[in-house]
Amino acid sequence: MTEPFEAGIVLLVLVASSALGLIVQPYLSEHHRSRETMELIRLVVAMLVTFTALVLGMLTTSVKSSFDKADSGMKGFAAELIQLDESLRQYGGEAASAREHLRNYTAAVIASIWFEEAQPPSNYYPKGLPHGMSESLALGDKLNQVGLMIRQLEPQDAMHRQLVADCIQRFNRVTERRWQLIEDAGGVISVPFASVVILWLAIVFASFGLNAPRNALVCVTISIAAVSIASVIYLILDLDSPFTGVIAVSSHAMRGALAHLSR
Questions:
Q1: DSSP H stretches of helix in the chain
Q2: Neighbouring residues of 221: CB distance < 8 A, sequence distance ≥ 6
Q3: Are 233 and 10 in contact, with CB atoms under 8 Å apart?
Q4: How far apart are CA 249 and CA 234, in angstroms?
């Protein structure tokens, strides 16, 4: 988990910036500490604060929207797995092997994404899978095996031919959902963009140090402000990784799908 580490770096940058301002403050000449100079600094900082507040607000909205999309996509993925299993169940005993592979695949997805939670019981899915919602050759091959088994079915009448067509269509939707979830897991925040925002915050906190009196209450207040901003950054980063971290997409939908497939 890198989000706490990255938020910790932001906290250190902000505290160090304000400390630098406090250290530099006594060494400034009277000319640089004049009323006009300080007023100009306050105007520039107010502009940066406004920009930063707007950007952080947009980032929060963007990552929350991305998180909700991933959560909705996972629920849709679980529903597609259930519908595919229902079509295979209706086909009959010849599709039992495909159903078993689909059940194994669903359990493997749960074990790989929510690896910190209780794993699905039994020993019927592969171990040692990569953690997280990422492209996995093992999981991809397991899902492709289900599609191959469906295409190998030999329907004997019109009803079973229609069921095979429905299964192929549903399998294609499952595959599309899987790739969409893999894409959504990548996050929306770029490193250069985040670096610029942190630079703005560092300048703002450095100005706090330049303008504030040097006493314990000021240091505590600036520290609380730095912790508050770092917690916001942590929240944004955590939401930007929808399948990891403290705030993550729930496994409830997939576990419900596995329970349905196991009947």
A1: 3-24, 35-91, 96-113, 137-151, 158-184, 191-211, 216-239, 252-261
A2: none
A3: yes
A4: 17
CA-closest candidate to residue 28, choices 185, 207, 234: 207
Residues in the chain: 263
Q: Are 146 and 98 in contact (CB under 8 A)?
A: yes
Structure tokens given for 149: 């088994």
Q: Do 77 and 180 fall within a single domain?
A: yes
- Distances, alpha carbon 186 to alpha carbons 43, 66, 128, 157, in Å: 38, 10, 22, 45
Domain match, 149 and 229 both: no
125 with 111: CB under 8 angstroms? yes
Read off the DSSP letter of residue 229.
H
Per-residue pLDDT tens digits for 25-42: 888 777 777 888 888 888
Task: Tell me, yes or no, whether 39 lies in a domain.
Answer: yes
Structure tokens at 179: 């790739």
| Digit-coded pLDDT (tens) for 129-175 | 666 666 667 788 889 999 999 999 888 889 999 999 999 999 999 99
